[in-house]
Amino acid sequence: MDGQVVILDGGLATELEAAGIKIQGDPLWSARLLHTNPQAIKDAHQRFLSSGADVLTTATYQASVDGFMKHLGMTSEEAIQLMMSGVQIARDAVQDFKTRTSDNKVPLVAGSVGPYGAFLYDGSEYTGTYEETMSGEVMLLICLHAGLIVKPKISFSMSLFRLQEFKAWHRPQVQCLVSAGADLIAMETIPSLKEAEALVELLREFPNTKAWLSFSCKDQKCISTGRTFAEAIQVANRSKQLVAVGVNCCPPPLITPLLTSASQHKPPDVSWVVYPNSGEEWIQNIGWKTDKSKTTFADLSLEWKKQGAKWIGNNISVSFFPSENKV
Fold it and tell me: Is this model's pTM higher than 0.85 or not?
């Protein structure tokens, strides 16, 4: 896929809901279907492939080992196996696609890693409020359980503690996806610079793994916590494993100014990755608010391509793919 635009799949949950499957109100979101209806996930993957997607993203955005244990009553081992099954379902969809098409392309499987806020299930992946309010309790419990520490040292920096806490939280999910054979990791909808730093640092523990990093953004210049997008994407300078950095799940009109604001700070060997929603905005305590103004996605995609975006998609259903494929 070198030298050409890579078409990402659409919003898996949106596609599943379009097929009549209820997902709203579930703390596991589409990840519950890994347990209850894996065929529905595979069918959605296949629809994206038939519509031209070059990349399938696993149904693990809102999944976590702890989340499966909490909401499905699973053991740790069962939760690990369920997490890994997301990769296998996508792989099976790719294999089926290859057997019924003469297309020589081999679609990639991206293991989705959502932010800690997705586990909290309070919309904070669009605010990042947990970045400064985390007390270290999650990290302490993990470390105590693993026998790594008895109590935190008094001199331990809270900033470093939060960094280690984020790494400890994400490590089981990344480990599962890498072990299951994902082609790369999609670290997506990250609202917090500290969490992004932790993910990039964690990625070094898997030196043969590539990834992209995409932020959730609040306006034309800032990620969700209020730090500038230009500052946030500079975390890519710390990794040789990132193939792309960018933004996802925000209104399309924000993309061009965001990329422009940070263009001088992006490493030259790292591409932009962009996959917005259809114009919705997350309003805390209210939910999604739809922008009634519509802009042609294909036209915007061409604009993003000119800005250096190589990985382009959306958080919508397959209905948007005919125009998207004109990129």
Answer: yes
